[in-house]
Amino acid sequence: MVDFDRVRELRSRGWGWDRIAADTKVGFHPDPSVHDPGLALRGLYQRERSRARRRPTEAPAVSRRAREARESRWTLSRIGYLLTPIFAIWFTLAFLVPSPIGLVLAAVPYLALALAVAAFLLVFGLWRAGGPRWSPAFRATVVIGVVLGLVISGLIALGGILFFGCPYLPSAASATSQPAGWTSVGAAPWQEGGRPVVYYYGASWCPYCSASSWAIWKALVAFDPTSPAPVPTMGYSAEGGIPEVILAGLPFSSSLLSLQVSEDLSGVVQHFPSPSNCYQKAYFNAYSGGAIPFLVVNGQFVHGGSSLLAASALAPWANGAQGGTQAVYTSVLGENGTPWQAVEEPAWWAMAILVRSLGGTVGEYAATYHWSAATQAAVSADLAQIH
Asked: Which domain holds residue 112?
């Protein structure tokens, strides 16, 4: 067998091929038919070099400790393996139980966005990685992520209930559709001093809030024994100039209902109010979809994601036209005229929701608070459709 290492060594010394072929240490034994041993050895040497170039080079063996050290580094893929289960578990639980788990970050859109970013880091990191995509270090990282996701969700839930008195609220997906844009949720009653809470979230710049405020105001004063009803503060929305009733600080005295309001009065467009307690924040995060106006009655009936009354319905009285707010106020209070015709349907539906939350009959409230015959009949008809 030819010692090609010896051949290379002798070539480096400047030996000719004939001399190298004659060297006994090289071990070249040509066939007797070969007339030029040097030329034959040269051809054999060239073929060996060609095969050596094509032969794959074996990677040097890597020790187990070195491999584990390399896999335990915090690469993009490992960060993705940690964050993806954390946000996947947090998002799932916050979606199913928006309060209290979804109070710090709502499932949609914040946790959904965080989960998408974590998944992108994982996929991009695996795509770039040259090493193994699944290893003991990665498995341990996933386990840690699962545990952290459960711990974070549990701590938020425990803190929300024990320290802030937040309610348990089921997912919006479990809500039952009711007529006129209302939905009912399987939550415990939200009451204050034994009275159902009516919670309104909106802004004075919002034309949809402004239009809806008349229906809400009319429904509230229908359960207020004060006669005549106190004149509310009125104005116009910063967008569109729609007449509105300012519900924040509304003079409202009822032994049956408790009114809570989060309303931005800055007039700055897209400026939203801050809820003042955990119940308000929980309901808004869980069922509003981030849209205003938002209304909750007794914690079990919700109107969100759409306006009670279209802003266009009161556009003819925008910015003081045709008597402005005073004309709308007089019409709605007296239940006559064109503005009242626009407001009456959502107002009657809100009154029916209030009756359902309070219990009792429409006839009892109509007699106590002197409702008109038309209002009594309409509220009775609406109440019969609520299930």
From this structure: 72-162
